[in-house]
Amino acid sequence: MRLRDFRMQAIAPYRGVMSISMDDEEFQSFIDSSYDDLEKKQSYLENQFGLGHFERYDLEPKNERIIFRSSDGKKVQANFIPIGTFSPGSGSWMWGWNNSAFTDSLRVKAESLKLLSEITGFEMFSNPTSEVDEDMAWEMVAMAVHTLKSEGVYRAPANN
After folding, report:
1. What would the pLDDT profile of 44-67 be if each residue is shown by its tens digit?
2. Alpha-carbon distance 54 to 96, whole Å?
């Protein structure tokens, strides 16, 4: 199954993680396992809740909620935390903790993703922005979902 329309979800931050640096093989294994887990989570959310098939969504940043709605009245809602924003045109990524479009509360929760820099030894997780391609963006999202112990992710359409 290929990933589709997903980007955000809930948070369960790591506490007390000591700095460990991964070598290239360990890092690739972390990417692969995180990506595999994300695909399973996304499949479950699609099958159980129809995520990826709703006509619209509404963000309620003050309530930290995302609500999906269909024309037949079906509604699914969840808490969310912004992971990041990918711009295919410029090949750039901005972490959610650096995005002023979100409330301070959401940005503080997203800051726990900076721990990925300590866990992996890669600075791209603590830099506010990075140059990446779409595959790298999805790998970053997968590792973020793993780190947050999130149930999945929603990728908002580029035009919204």
Report:
1. 999 999 999 999 999 999 999 999
2. 23
